[in-house]
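ESCALATION

Customer reports they have been waiting on this structure for their group meeting. Please prioritize. Original submission:
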Amino acid sequence: MTRPDRQGLGFGRVAVEAAMKEFVADAEPTFGLLFCEEKNVGFYIRLGWARFHGKVVVEQPEGRIVYNLMQAMVLPLCGQAPDDGEIDLNGYPW
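Update from on-call: job pushed to the front of the queue and completed.
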């Protein structure tokens, strides 16, 4: 998170874009997936991310659940990002 008095200067954009560049260079993922609070959705949309409208399945100590605590966002990287359907993390959401 960027300090409030430094927001809007591009620091967050630079950090997110650098991370995505590294992911692509290292692993060539089809798409990026992140979870964010509703208040941050606009920031990620401005960076090219889109809301994922399907369901995300994750593991929890009590078993498999649909994760809906935060908005799932997707970004096409080396392929197309889904906008609906199901994404199964086959593990915990962190």
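Sent to customer with the following note: The chain is about 25% helix and 30% strand.
Escalation resolved.
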